[in-house]
Amino acid sequence: MAVSPDGTRAYVVNFGADSLSVIDTGSNTPITSLAVGHHPSRVALTPDGNFAYVTNNNDGNPPGTVSVLQIRPIVTSISPSSGSTLGGDSITIIGSGFTSATAVTLNSTPVVGFTVVDDNHITGITPPHAAGTVAATVTTPLGSGTGGSFTYVVPPPTISSIVPVSGTTSGGTLVTITGTNFTGATAVSIAGTPVTSFQVVDDSHISAITAPRGPGTGPVSVTTSGGTATGPATYTYLTPVPTITNFTPTSGSTVGGTQVTITGTGFTGAIAVSIAGVPATTFQVLNDTTIVATTAPSAPSSGPVSVTTPGGTATSAGNYTYVTPAPTVTGIFPTSGPSGKSTQVAISGTALTGATSVTVNGNPVPFTVVSDNEIIATLPPHAAGTVTVTVTTPGGSASIPFIYTRDRAQLTASPALAQLFPPHPYAGILTATLTDLDTGQPIPGQPITFTTGSTLLCTSTTDASGVATCSALIALPLIILNGGYTATYPGSPTVQSATAHGALITP
């Protein structure tokens, strides 16, 4: 009798039955009997338990032979020697003693659907297994044999398609990649740019978010521990067409300088901004959704806002309106002038460009627009008092007061001649001349009162030369007594009052 090295089998020769019994030591029950020579007497096992040697006493001539029996299956190789960790590869296990095989495993994992082709060959399908090298084990009723080597290799990924095939240079596009062997993916690139994030949905699908990148086309790649798949699918980065959703304010001055905030999408890289058809003086791209632009001067008009980028031009649905601004008048210099003659004034303010009229109490006067902040106007003679100077532009009107002052008057009185004997031809003839100092002209038709002391000599009206004459011959004694006389002008709405002293001359 002999026992297998692992102690699971006992081998007993049957002298009379010419056989070798194999017994399961665990249950002490015979498993099978193997035919040997005539009258076997002894049995011995190889150290590995694969072979049994039985001596037969009565075989041969002279008698005495040895039967060599293969007890357990022997595995020598596996073909092919490597395959996918996903399993599913067809293999052939090569060896001996495979007849009556009851189980075939690779590192204890059953081979799928194995078939005993003959005593030396078993075919089957590899099960899934982690990467690494494994051995095959073939089990028969007499025992198990392990041998050969098979290397599980992580299969390289493949890419068949992507959806969508293009997206914006701003990134953020969700791309679905379809292929094989994506499990365990460690990196994904789209058009040569690593994606912002990705998720392995299953072994055949990856969802990835594109990162920002300049315009261009390139292949998609997926990297796993099995390698990197590149293409054949390609992805194109496109500069997005901008859109405008809103802008504020919706109107501003024809003078320009209004800041307009434009909101939308795809503004990065903007190369032009127009407002109501007029290119903006300046603009700044704050981010991909906001632009701040400054309007240029323009005539009154209305039109859409547009933003142009390398991706195209966006035009707003609503219009921006250039409005003529209402003028303001902040000052007038001088602030007053004589009522008897014209006064040139400088009117200061804002939005004076395009002024259509300047009026004094509603009456038009000549004017010149010097700039948007100044007008030179000529105010005509006018009765003394405060008037309203009004500037009118297409945007409205603005006013400021101006004061007309009464003209300064100058009254000169002729001397009184007191020579009586012999009589002087001018004795008793008094004259006074009234002149407007602001115009330099005589003032006709005005009353002049001549008095001496408290005595009224006469009242006379100035002629065309501004001269008033008073005959005071009878009053000469009073004039002599008072040392002369006084001429008085009471003034008028346009001319100030004035007085003059007529001296007494004694030849």
Runs in which pLDDT lies below 50 for 5 or more consecutive residues are none
Which structural class do the helices and strands define? mainly beta
Describe the main β-sheet briefly.
5 strands, mixed
Care to count the β-strands? 51
Question: Rough shape?
Answer: rod-shaped
Content of β-strand: over 45%
Taking all residues together, what is the mean pLDDT? Answer: 92
- End-to-end separation in angstroms reads 192 Å
How is the topology of this model organized?
Layout: E1 2-3, E2 9-14, E3 19-24, E4 29-35, E5 40-45, E6 51-56, E7 65-70, E8 74-79, E9 82-84, E10 90-96, E11 103-106, E12 109-110, E13 112-118, E14 121-125, E15 132-140, E16 143-153, E17 158-163, E18 166-168, E19 174-180, E20 187-190, E21 193-194, E22 197-202, E23 205-209, E24 216-224, E25 227-238, E26 243-248, E27 251-253, E28 259-265, E29 272-275, E30 278-279, E31 282-287, E32 290-294, E33 301-309, E34 312-323, E35 328-333, E36 336-338, E37 343-350, E38 357-360, E39 363-364, E40 367-371, E41 374-379, E42 385-393, E43 396-405, E44 409-413, E45 416-417, E46 429-436, E47 447-452, E48 455-461, E49 467-471, H1 476-482, E50 484-489, E51 498-505
